[in-house]
Amino acid sequence: MSVSSPPAPSARLTARERRTRFWQMVQLMPIMAILVLLFGGALVLAILQSLGFAPWFGVNTFPDFSYFGALWGSSTFWASLGLTLYYATVSTVLALILGILLALALVKTFPSKTFYKYLYKLPLMIPYTVGIALAVLMLSNGGMLSRLAAFFGMIDDPSQFPQILKTHYGWGIIAVYVWKQTPFITLAVYAVLLGIGRETEEAAAILGASRRTIFFRVTLPQILPGVVSSTLICFAFNVGAFEAPFILGGGFPDTLPVVAWRYFNDADYTLQLQGMATVVSIGLVAGVILFGYLAAYRRYERRMGRN
Amino acid sequence: MTKVQLNAVRKQFGAFVAIENIDLDIESGELVALLGPSGCGKTTTLRMIAGLERPSAGAILFDGKDVSEQPVQDRNVGMVFQRYALFPHMTVEKNVTFGLSVRGTPREEIGARLEEILDVVQLTQFRHRFPAQLSGGQMQRVAIARTLITKPSVLMMDEPLANLDTKLRGEMRRFIRDLQQRFGITTIFVTHDQVEAMELADRVAVIFNGHLAQYDAPAKLYQQPASLDVADFMGASNIVPGRMKSDDLVETAIGEIRVAPRAGFETGKDVQVMLRGEAVDLLTDPPAQGGVAGRVVARDFFGASVNYSVDCGTHQITVSEQARRLVDVGTSVRLNIDPERVWLL
Ligand SMILES: Nc1ncnc2c1ncn2[C@@H]1O[C@H](COP(=O)(O)OP(=O)(O)OP(=O)(O)O)[C@@H](O)[C@H]1O
Ligand SMILES: [Mg+2]
């Protein structure tokens, strides 16, 4: 059965509506100005520079695509990009799985729950650099784990401990990201879980659904907003983060932020422009991926009748 | 279909006792209302029957078999939650078929049963909508359809009418009663509205503070409550203290009232006399004696019926009758009370 649609609102605005719009714009001005100047300005500068506009270095070949050409033409760029995305994706996915499990556990009642609710947030308050230092202390050859393994006779000497840090598998980097971001995702998902309550899960159980079915067909779709927003933030951070891959990574080929840093730090300051091209590339890649992710999620939301 | 029994069921949350030794027998195909004030343990009782909560002591039997250890999924019960608990990310259709699809029912059968139930609850035209796009009454019908389609042997409803307006409430009551009779499902219905309980239920279980105060047919509960608390909760307004003068006469502050003799109420016993407003006749052309003398002090007109407050000295008695005539405030009257309809507590 079709329902007759209401008459379409006329495209012409009344004088009153126009006035309201105008005042809305005026009220938005200050924040818009800051946004445009700070973010827009920096972005425009970065793009200009990567296209050869840097008179302050005595370089001005604008518009010049050679920096991008050189960058995208080399195979190491693609290797770096692959590594960057690999670390970012694996750690986001791992943190997501752990975060969801933790959040699901936290909505249950168990003894000394309050204590655990504080405990899991601890990494949120500790800076990344401390986390990296902890990773070095714990995971390196000669670190705590290797010594313990040697002490309990699992290996003869700490140096025989399997290499965790400074490999291109990036277990150290991933460990730091996961350690730091699991609580963040837990927090986001936990809040959403509290909001949706237990009733739909109980209703599903009464209707005969197993625990697995309940999770995948009832709980997960409902916590999706929390999942999407928190993984978006984590992934964006992981793509652009510099310290962890710099200290814990496996060296050449480096991740893109480290590559950019090396360009910026080079004695030859004209390489700054190459660095800018790298930074803009990171931005492009991250932007495309995040936009695609959001667009897919929006499509799903719309299919569900949410606007 | 299924007979439900609660044997000495008790539920504790930590040190707090929510349900204290409740015994309840619900016959197969019966519609029972759980009635009681907020926080008395109605929802908890329902959740234990459903298997969402495990009794701290006692047993719950379905057709004589103990189900206390049986997980929720295997009990084949249905529950309509107070706030419906629809799956917000599924259309009406998906919500309704969820129970069948997780049980692995063949696709053709799901389709057929879906059409049937959508027709019963009159939701066919809303089948592709999401819960957020439905009205309260429509959501409730989805919740009921989602439960009924699985053919539960016990149907539970937790205040399903609480959020509806008066008209929709009446419609939904008739609708539920209809369905329940059509399918003959053992139904347990939670409410804190005594009118709703009396209108819908075969029997009503009144619960106070985790205790079962009375379990009887609506008429019995209304006319012959087991205690003052129950009488009060069932809306009894005319309760007058007195003393048995003989086994069929009570001496009260408003005069002598003739009653039907009853075991346990011997001469000299202190009693409470309950008079239902509609069981009292208001005589404006008073005989010289007999009955209770009084004066009309207030009149509340409801259209079809009318309530009078009659001042009888120490107490005011409320009398209600059909509005075939109107007695003016200030009129001297006599109250004639049928001894069979006086209830002693
Ligand atoms: N999970 C729980 N933990 C602790 N106490 C609880 C829990 N669930 C219920 N209670 C307590 O048990 C008592 C009975 O609760 P219940 O939900 O059964 O009340 P109810 O009769 O359904 O009330 P209402 O009409 O307000 O819904 C209440 O005092 C409530 O605070
Ligand atoms: Mg309740």
TrEMBL record, chain A:
ABC transmembrane type-1 domain sequence ranges: 81-295
UniProt keyword list: Membrane, Transmembrane, Transmembrane helix, Transport
GO biological process, one term: transmembrane transport
Topological category with respect to the lipid bilayer: Multi-pass membrane protein
PROSITE patterns: ABC_TM1
Keyword match Membrane: yes
Domain of life (superkingdom): Bacteria
Compartment(s) where it occurs, according to its Swiss-Prot or TrEMBL record: Cell membrane
Entry annotated with the keyword Transport: yes
InterPro entries according to UniProt: MetI-like (IPR000515), MetI-like_sf (IPR035906), Sugar_ABC_transporter (IPR052730)
Cellular component annotations (GO), alphabetically ordered: plasma membrane
Bilayer-spanning residue ranges: 28-57, 77-107, 128-149, 169-193, 214-239, 273-296
Family: Belongs to the binding-protein-dependent transport system permease family.
Protein name, UniProt field: Putative spermidine/putrescine transport system permease protein
Automatic annotation (TrEMBL), chain B:
Bilayer-crossing regions: none
Alphabetized SMART domains for the sequence: AAA
Keyword terms of this UniProt record: ATP-binding, Nucleotide-binding, Transport
ABC transporter domain residues: 4-234
Classification via InterPro entries: AAA+_ATPase, ABC_SmlMolc_Importer, ABC_transporter-like_ATP-bd, ABC_transporter-like_CS, Mo/tungstate-bd_C_term_dom, NA-bd_OB-fold, P-loop_NTPase, Transp-assoc_OB_typ2
UniProt keyword Cell inner membrane present: no
A Pfam family per the record: TOBE_2
MF terms (GO), sorted A to Z: ATP binding
Database matches in PANTHER family: SPERMIDINE/PUTRESCINE IMPORT ATP-BINDING PROTEIN POTA, SPERMIDINE_PUTRESCINE IMPORT ATP-BINDING PROTEIN POTA
Entry protein name: ABC transporter ATP-binding protein
Lineage of the organism: Bacteria, Pseudomonadati, Pseudomonadota, Alphaproteobacteria, Rhodobacterales
